[in-house]
Amino acid sequence: MYVVGTSGHIDHGKTSLILALTGTDCDRLPEEKARQMTIDIGFAGMEVPGFGTVNFIDVPGHERFIRNMVAGAWGIDLGLLVVAADDGWMPQTEDHFRVLQLLGVERIIAAINKIDAADSETTDLVEEQVRERIAGTRYEGAQIARVSAKTGDGIDALRDAIAANLKKLSRATDADKPYLYIDRVFASKGYGTVVTGTLRNGILHENDAVTIQPGNIEGRIKRIESNYSAIEEGSPSQRTALNISGVPADTLKRGHILYRQRFFTESEQIIARLELLETKRELKNNAGIEVLIGTAAVKGKVILLSGDKITQGAVAARIKFNEPWYTYPGQPFVLTGPGGFRILGGGRVLLPAYDSHKNRGQVVEGLGLFRSYGLEERIAFIISVRRGIKRTDLHAMFPERTEDIESALISLVKKNLVKQTGDYLMPAKYYDSLVKRILETVNKHIGLNLKEIADITGDDQDICRLIMPSLVSAKQVMEKEGKFFSDRGGQVGLSKGKKQLMDTAKANGGGGIELDNLGNESVRTDAKELIKLGELVSLDGNILYHREVYEKMRDAIMAQFVKKDKLSVPEAKEVVGLSRKYIIPLLNRIERDGMIRRLGDFRVKV
Q1: Which of 9, 272, 522, 527 could disulfide-link 92, Cβ–Cβ 3.0 to 4.6 Å?
Q2: What is the pTM for the complete model shown?
Q3: C-alpha angle 405/408/409, rounded to 5°?
Q4: Can you name the CATH fold of 265-424?
């Protein structure tokens, strides 16, 4: 299914053109009838061979109703840009034309209406004007139809043009993540709450559980209708009415988002790509704005990442909402001044849930990844900013199909832009530099815990936690009791001072060395690091044994339990030839190692 929508300057005949095409007058409000001016969006349907009923959305042309125009235009697949033959391309024509581009509407037809009110020469000039205006845009070469909604001239040809263009549209996306921006809410007698909108990105079924934001409102679909007929399921790009149970109508309004599987991220701030409507306009830092996104109008302000104003071209900027809102990466929007009367430009969301205290440096660095702003680049940017993100969390941020996201990730890994460690995805450059910093830190210091490593490298502890298992698995780092070492192999890699301490401890045998008697702080530090490394064994915090000496004495003690059930202190002294000064700390250390326990004046095997 597809949706066709009008756009164009006020009084160029958008509503009358839909009436001529479909037989439906979209001006339903008494005020619209009285003023003969479209104020809110209207809806109609037309049978198109091969497509069944195609839905039409009519939008207001007056600049005072830009919010309503965008609310209608966001959900259309084929734009019907209406230009009056007796008036030509006007300011709101240009604004609406740019809105179609900003929202990513795939195709348009330019309908030159009111040919009954202009001679052929004037109409020729208007058609040439239209061709010039659309040249160099994504709509260059779009079909142009001359019509008169008043007399009916050209209406059949326009119907044929609509059918021909519908055939050229991309297939409506079914990513199994359906959502709908609500554009109308009402309570229906006998049914309850009904919401309408253009269904996108998937299929909804009767009895589906859905969530509505804001408010995290949960409900269930009781009935689905399209074009006033009950249907079993709602399809992508279809005007859909949903009867929702468990949700009072007065809790909902236009702009609310209904979805089955959440991928919208609640955000107080986002990073977005902005583009002004025309070079004559400018947007100053901290300017108040409205973001027209879906059918919602969200107030906020623009905070530039650099400079004090935007004058032309596309730039990335921060948008801070007055209240948290829900967005997804790649989502298009239109930007207006406060009050929604003047279109400033528009853009696309690059990063929901931006943290200005944490992410600024990563954002500025990551913006260099963008060239085309496609899915692959958006994914790479988010991974770059987040530093580390779970694969499942990344999938939950995007409306695209799981297969498309995975394909993009495979490509990014092949290009060495992204690396995976466990279930986490990290930017390759950051991953490599972090690994280097961690290895340098572990090589320089012995027996650091995770927090100490993070503090020394200056990196996030959670990110370091992601990296360490892969380094341990690759035998680049050894872990023991939550501490990390560069090497476990004897004295390999030890400094000269540490080797001397090890030699002294080994030569002293059961006499060991005493920490308190070591000459200076540097030597004591070496001794403490050798304890962390496991090369020296601390009996009581002061007496230190060479590891091999300790293990030999420990094994000699434990061998006694082959023939004995218990061992006294004098017996233990005789076995290893130690005085009481050393035998008690030795037995206590073996007990701390969990091999023996004290029973009165004896030691027994555990």
Answers
A1: 9
A2: 0.80
A3: 85
A4: Elongation Factor Tu (Ef-tu); domain 3 (2.40.30)
